Amino acid sequence: MTTPKKKRPGPNTREPLAVAIGPVATTIAFAWYDRSSWEELRALAADPQVLDDSFEAWLFSAESTLAQLTASGTTVVKLRLDVSAAAAWASEQGRSFDSAARAAYIAITAREKASQ
């Protein structure tokens, strides 16, 4: 039996906008950006092809996703992502600053805030 290979994001594959932070996905940590942090993200990301092409496109997608999650009963915690800190963390971990690293960083940040 062969193990299915993980698919790599294609040129039209967008980054996931939310990550579960609890044992049951009833609370979601959602990375939030303002225009300047979005531009910084686009400049530093190892995978800019999975990001929306503009801040406005990201904001539209983010607000739509937030509305859908909230309507489904999910609690959404918006967390401003400190892009330079996240990129530095990824580098310290020997990781590429890609969507997986950003999701891990926002999850760690959310857990730290929740435990305070």
Explain what this protein looks like in three dimensions.
The N terminus is likely disordered. A three-stranded mixed sheet has the order 1-2-3, with helices on both faces. The chain is globular and about 35 Å long. It is 47% helix and 12% strand. The N and C termini lie far apart (46 Å). The chain has one domain. β1 and β2 form a beta hairpin. The protein is an alpha+beta fold.
Offer a quick outline of the entry.
The chain has helices at residues 35-44, 55-71, 83-92, 99-115, and strands at residues 19-20, 27-32, 75-80. The protein is α+β, with helices and mostly antiparallel strands and 116 residues long.
What is the assembly state of the chains in this entry?
single chain
> Which structural class matches the secondary elements?
alpha+beta
Number of helical regions: 4
Identify the overall geometry: globular
**Uncertain segments:** 1-12
Q: Which terms would index this structure?
A:
116 residues, single chain, disordered N terminus, alpha+beta, 4 helices, three-stranded mixed sheet
Topology:
Blueprint: E1 19-20, E2 27-32, H1 35-44, H2 55-71, E3 75-80, H3 83-92, H4 99-115
Parallel strand pairs: 2-3
Antiparallel strand pairs: 1-2
Helix pairs in contact: 3-4
